[in-house]
Amino acid sequence: MQVEIITPDKKVFEGAASGIQVPGTAGSFEVLENHAPIISVLEKGKVRVRIPDGSYQYFAIDGGVIEVLKNRVIVLAESAVAV
Prior knowledge:
Blueprint: E1 2-6, E2 11-16, E3 19-24, E4 27-32, E5 38-50, E6 56-69, E7 72-77, E8 80-82
Parallel strand pairs: 1-7
Antiparallel strand pairs: 1-2, 3-4, 3-5, 5-6, 6-7, 6-8
C-alpha cells in the first residue's frame, strides 16, 4: 500500500509500506493492506511505518487525521519529525 505523511509545511514520508501503526484517540491501531476505508482523528504520539523489506521508520506527530482508502493511506499531521 502507499503511505504519505504530510504536514502543513512539507511531505515527511511517501512510499510503499506493508503496515502503519498510529496513535488513535481510543488507543494505538494498525492499518494493513486491504484495510476497510476509514477516517480517524490522531493524537500526539509515534507513528510506525513498516517498509516492505521488514524494516521500520518512526515519526513523532502532534496529532492529526488519517484517511485509508483503496490501499492508500494519508496521514495529515499538525507536525511530524522522523525519530
